[in-house]
Amino acid sequence: MSTDTPGIDPLLALRAPQDPACDVFLTGTVFLDIIFTGLDSAPVRGTESWARGMGSSPGGVANMATALARLGLHTSLAAAFGDDHYGEYCWDALEQGEGIDLSMSHTVPGWHSPVTVSMAYEGERTMVSHGHEAPAPGASVVPGQTSPAPNPAFPQCPPRARAAIASLVPGRSEPWVATAARHGALVFADVGWDESGRWDLDALPDLTHCEAFLPNAAEAMRYTRTDCPRAAAHALAERVPLAVVTLGAEGAYAVDGRTGAAAQVPAIAVEALDPTGAGDVFVAGFVTGTLADWPLADRLAFAGLTAALSVQEFGGSLSAPGWAEIAAWWQRIRTLDDQDPAALERYAFLEELLPTTARAWPLRRAVPTIGFRR
């Protein structure tokens, strides 16, 4: 993480003594990500491919947690960590490097860290992952035992928070989601591909507890049986207060189910190095804008901007931009002669947030590898 990132708190004007200490709670699986970039094409069977770039960083749910923390939100993560060197590295990178609260996380003896190798080429990526499912909360793996042993340190319920982020799975309900909503958290949810092919919103029981649902266009259209992402967003807004559909190169479209207001913001054209974690960064940006009570269009614009900045760097968590990167982009983009004044006006709301001076673009971020000795 950049050590000179301006200490911007986007919620400063809204904070009160009685507020929860945690801004955002999330839980999930932390992977060690190993990312290869600069491949000219997909690897060919029976040959060796050399990549021009490589990075390693915490991945999985760590992408989202890091993106939130770098935007100034007090972030709490509950996750299982392996007791191998990978797990130790991921824990230190998140807690010491990013300032993420891991008091609700735990290390599982005898369980190794999940690993993902990601290869980025031609604007896409191919991933290979390996790992074993972590023991159920409250259990740990002990060598020589055939069943998990109790681990009373694992949290039984989420902390009180302004917001929580959930990844919905068809046919599965996570009790913590309802608990978080009942305690006042705004729940933001995304969803993965439905391997069953049913695409049934009723199979997502935790959706009833959500403030916002953020699928991509293909997922949204399948769940709503529509042939247009915008129509899908309006249909989803009948089920959740905020429906946000990401449109890839076309940006994003959102509908406020309470007021009926809609907004669309185009994507920022960039040269993508590695798209890993861009969707997580988009959600983090939208959560930040929502908690800061920005207008809907500003939230979309900010989320799209943070995602665009992330794909220009290595890795999922390491590429998440902080306020230093956002400030440098805003300072630089206004000096370019070919910029559309109307497009720049879309981001004028940043003026009130960003420092008047910023470091020169481009910015160097964290070193994308493991274990350099100082």
Describe the model:
- With 374 residues, this protein is of the alpha/beta class.
- The chain is 25% helix and 21% strand.
- The chain has 9 helices and 16 strands.
- It has helices at residues 61-70, 85-98, 175-182, 217-224, 229-236, 278-291, 296-310, 323-333, 341-345; strands at 22-27, 30-37, 53-60, 75-78, 80-82, 106-108, 115-121, 124-130, 139-140, 149-150, 161-168, 186-191, 212-213, 242-246, 252-256, 262-265.
- The protein has an 8-stranded mixed β-sheet, sandwiched between helices. It has a 4-stranded mixed β-sheet with strand order 3-2-7-8.
- α1 crosses α6 (278-291), α4 (217-224) packs across α5 and α6 (278-291) packs antiparallel against α7 (296-310).
- It is globular and about 50 Å long.
- The two termini are 16 Å apart.
Provide the descriptors you would attach to this structure in a database record.
single chain, 374 residues, alpha/beta, eight-stranded mixed sheet, four-stranded mixed sheet, 25% helix, globular
Short précis:
This protein has 374 residues and is of the alpha/beta class. It has nine helices and 16 strands.
SSE arrangement:
Layout: E1 22-27, E2 30-37, E3 53-60, H1 61-70, E4 75-78, E5 80-82, H2 85-98, E6 106-108, E7 115-121, E8 124-130, E9 139-140, E10 149-150, E11 161-168, H3 175-182, E12 186-191, E13 212-213, H4 217-224, H5 229-236, E14 242-246, E15 252-256, E16 262-265, H6 278-291, H7 296-310, H8 323-333, H9 341-345
Parallel strand pairs: 1-4, 1-11, 2-7, 5-6, 11-12, 12-13, 13-14
Antiparallel strand pairs: 2-3, 7-8, 9-10, 14-15, 15-16
